[in-house]
């Protein structure tokens, strides 16, 4: 179940935040100009964002994308949402509060959000950042992927083992989503050695 996988991933983020100290927060990551703190601050928005989505009225508009993969592909188009918001996302992350407040998003808020999700109909529609409408379950698939990818960003910067706490369901679900986002014919040809079509990256 997607909620179980997200719970596991966010617990991993909570555990990571508890042990980060001093200069570790300022280590550069493989994301150009992003430190460990920048990445952690960026991802700490997800529990609060999820809570806000649950509390908001269900949108009356029809679903704009049937699956998380469709939405990701839409966002990643050249000149699309991902390109337009990349610098804004980074700037917002840099302006976040102190480390303690960042970590509390996973140690204190995330468990409450997970408990609420367990009582939620995941087929309900939710607004996705003001530009899309998807089911709650498909939105959570993207949030889980973000948790795994950005955990790896930080773990790599700190020489921590990967997949670490993302092993099992979080990693499997992330691989599944990224595979669904890739061009299926190109993926089959590349995976079976029938050619070298440009399959990756599917996210930038």
TrEMBL record:
One Pfam family in the UniProt entry: MDMPI_N
Stretch forming the signal peptide: none
Molecular function GO labels: metal ion binding
Mycothiol-dependent maleylpyruvate isomerase metal-binding domain span: 6-155
Cross-referenced InterPro entries: DinB/YfiT-like (IPR034660), MDMPI_metal-binding (IPR024344)
Domain of life the protein comes from: Bacteria
Protein name according to UniProt: TIGR03083 family protein
Organism in which the protein naturally occurs: Saccharopolyspora kobensis
């Amino acid at each position: 179940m997607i909620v179980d996988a997200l719970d596991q991933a966010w617990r991993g983020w909570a555990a990571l935040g508890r042990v980060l100290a001093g200069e570790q927060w300022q280590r550069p990551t493989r994301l150009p100009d992003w430190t460990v703190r920048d990445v952690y601050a960026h991802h700490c928005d997800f529990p609060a964002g999820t809570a806000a989505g649950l509390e908001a009225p269900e949108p009356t508009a029809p679903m704009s994308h049937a699956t998380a993969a469709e939405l990701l592909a839409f966002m990643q188009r050249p000149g699309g949402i991902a390109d337009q918001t990349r610098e804004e996302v980074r700037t917002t992350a840099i302006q976040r509060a102190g480390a303690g407040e960042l970590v509390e998003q996973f140690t204190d808020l995330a468990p409450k959000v997970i408990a609420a999700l367990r009582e939620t109909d995941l087929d309900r529609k939710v607004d996705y950042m003001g530009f899309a409408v998807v089911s709650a379950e498909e939105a959570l698939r993207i949030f889980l992927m973000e948790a795994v990818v950005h955990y790896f960003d930080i773990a790599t910067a700190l020489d921590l083992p990967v997949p670490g706490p993302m092993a099992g369901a979080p990693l499997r679900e992330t691989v599944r989503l990224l595979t669904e986002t890739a061009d299926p014919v190109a993926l089959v040809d590349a995976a079976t050695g029938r050619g070298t079509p440009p399959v990756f990256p599917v996210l930038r």
